[in-house]
Specification:
alpha/beta; Quinone Oxidoreductase, Chain A, domain 1; Rossmann fold; six-stranded parallel sheet; globular
């Protein structure tokens, strides 16, 4: 099969398309023929060698995908060959024609959801759900501000929060991005390039501020977020590209909290609950993954450049 391989950490150019042996499933494992593979920012950090957890070299990037079950090992009961599935994790990587997974990493994909959309579920929707409901403990009626809401995680958060009865506010840096966020159910969308965007959010909430902020760029925004929060508010740091200085008194004055999260730390029971919720939302059509670009597998280096360039309007996927 063809797969993207990384033999050394570095820039996008270290990714090369190669022929590698087809994977074979052991007991409890599943091989999926990948129709589309999702590209996530975290994969650029891993490839560069900057991520805290580095895979053994050489490796194939990717954890998200949509496709068809090719083969199953003994003691696999949840799926069978021919089933449509989405992948939220992989043992061998998803930037490939075939991906080896554990049974728990493979989830049914409704007929109404395309394979490219299936590749946009794993990291974005799992991250958004965990940030909103397992870390921030968000509740119906609360106001949630999503920074960078036109990206994959941001759009997922808008859809999930709106479906749960929250009042969703999003930021985006382009007119097209703001229009997309509004279409997904945000009650207010502001331009985060406007120096007064947090004043607009404050006015929208009657001066109270948001109860929850999902922060995609904490190294730039966290200090401002803490001064914008409602009493008892929570900031969940989803992404950061460096250090930041904050005033702890902003936390104290609001009885507020800053919460971190990392996808790799999700427990098995948390994962089961997340995917049960996502399955219901996908089946009912209230969750609608947005695909921004579909690129051929060999364009993986370009995809990594694009995802870090931004601004984003949905998910970039690779098609083997």
């Amino acid at each position: 099969m063809r797969a993207i391989r990384v033999h050394e950490f570095g820039g996008p150019g270290v990714m090369h398309l190669e022929e590698v042996p087809d994977p074979r499933p052991a007991p409890g494992q599943v091989v999926v023929r990948v129709a589309a593979a999702g590209v996530n920012p975290v994969e650029t950090y891993v490839r560069s060698g900057a991520y805290a957890r580095k895979p053994a070299l050489p490796y194939t990037p990717g954890s998200d995908g949509g496709g068809i079950v090719e083969a199953v090992g003994d003691r696999v009961n949840a799926v069978a060959p021919g089933d449509r599935v989405y992948l939220a994790g992989s043992l061998s990587g998803t930037y490939a024609e075939l991906a080896l997974c554990t049974e728990s990493q493979v989830h049914p994909l409704p007929e109404r959801v395309t394979y490219a959309q299936g590749a946009a579920i794993g990291v974005p929707y799992v991250t958004a759900y965990r940030a909103l409901f397992q870390r921030a403990d968000a509740a119906p009626g609360e106001v949630a501000l999503v920074s960078g809401a036109s990206g994959g995680v941001g759009l997922a958060a808008i859809q999930l929060g709106r479906a749960a009865g929250m009042v969703m506010v999003g930021t985006a840096g382009s007119e097209e991005g703001r229009r997309l966020v509004a279409e997904q159910g945000a009650a207010l969308v502001v331009d985060h390039n406007d120096p007064d965007y947090l004043d607009q959010v404050a006015a929208f909430t009657g001066g109270r501020g948001p109860d929850v902020i999902l922060e995609m760029l904490a190294n730039v925004n966290l200090g401002h977020d803490l001064r914008a929060l409602a009493q008892g508010g929570r900031v969940v740091v989803v992404g950061s590209r460096g250090t930041v200085e904050i005033d702890p008194r902003d936390l104290m004055a609001r009885d507020a909290a800053v919460l971190g999260m990392l996808g790799a730390t999700i427990s098995p029971i948390e994962s089961v609950r997340i995917h049960a919720a996502l399955a219901a939302g996908l089946a009912e059509g209230v969750l609608r993954p947005i695909v921004a670009q579909e690129l051929p597998l060999e364009a993986a280096p370009h995809a990594h450049e694009e995802i870090m360039r931004g601004p984003h309007r949905g998910k970039i996927v690779l098609v083997p």
